[in-house]
Amino acid sequence: HCMIISDRGTRSCTDRHAMLWAVIGLVATSVTSRASTTTSAGQPTCSTDEDCSLLGVCHRDTGKCLCDAGWAGQDCGELKLLPVERGSGYNLTGAKPPVSSWGANIFPAGRNEDEWHMYAAEFENNCDISKWSPNSAIVHAVSVTGPTGPYARKDVAVPPFAHNPKVVQAPDGTWLMYTIGVPVDASKLANCSTDTVTGAKLLQRAEAGKSNAAPSPPGRTPGNLESNVTLFTARSIAGPWTRFGVVLGPDWEGTWDEDTSNPSPLVLPNGTVLLMYRGCVVGGGGCHSEYIGIASASNWRGPYTRLGSQSILPNSSAEDPSLWIDRRGNFHFLMHYLGPNSGELVARHAFSRSYTGPWDIHVKTIPYTTTVEFTDGSSTLYHKRERPHLVFNKDGVPVFLVTGVVAPGNQSGYAGLSYTLIQGVRSH
Length: 428
Fold this sequence. Notes:
The chain has about 425 residues and is mainly beta. It contains three helices and 28 strands. Residues about 1-40 and about 210-220 have low confidence and may be disordered.
């Protein structure tokens, strides 16, 4: 049993409403605890807060980590994930014909506690994830039943080719959507009901359909539509969105980030924008040696400047960063880990006291895996789980993890029906 305490009075609530009120900043009794001890008695496990992944503090007397709300484990690196209700999130893979999506951001609408907005990458013409380039568009979906959905598609915010949306709000009230991609003529997209054109030939056709808005890369990226970070702006979370332009293009041929993708913006209170991204070397028909970098700008209009000439984690191959700052001023990001022996252990967490580094990764605990438990008592081992995005409440406590997943039985290599999963985080 729980009670919601707010300026509207005190009343009982369901678990879903307790989670909802917590994320929009109304105080629930279930989120009053700021930290918890998560290690058993025994030998000390920490001597500094870094030993707790900066997701908690090291108790100087016991040598144990006191983990922040939402986190657990010997080094506080594991998300306390809740079971997922089937049919929630944004899942149209059961439609006739099916529709696939791949990760999203979600936001409360305002005073209506049950209305939430989502911006997701969705693949046009009933294509699966194998045709993410060039068929991805950014769609706007809405839930009227709370943050976990289900969400219903409302409109197309940015037509193809646009992918990997990350939405934040600037101090001046402007909503900012960072994406990858360039405009491509609709006639050049794959039609997965009738089209047999695949792979390199499809990309060549899409390349021929690029509009003049496409950036001119300084390096070699033939047939590559995603090597840029493009910004769109809006006055309302509901849109409409206006194209501002490319704010971070591909780097020069031969650099570690000659292909620049996967933006993750963080807007600081003074308006400074930190823009984390994935870079890689292009060659042999694909992207190799994928690593994480950071650019910055004094305000969202730019210019954006890369931080140094090397990756911030040169020994950890990864993509899909999701950057945030905690209540103590430390910096963190989740990532899709691409290193050896990743398997089900697809996620990693990195942390630093400064965005300039040094950055560190602990592997005693893993933020999440490809296995998801459901409220009906079942579980699913997903073929893929990528595009992590954490949703925080006003106190900086993580309350939802959003990822893109490919279900087992629907995949072959890097193909398959995909959807967007929203999983709650236990905050006490």
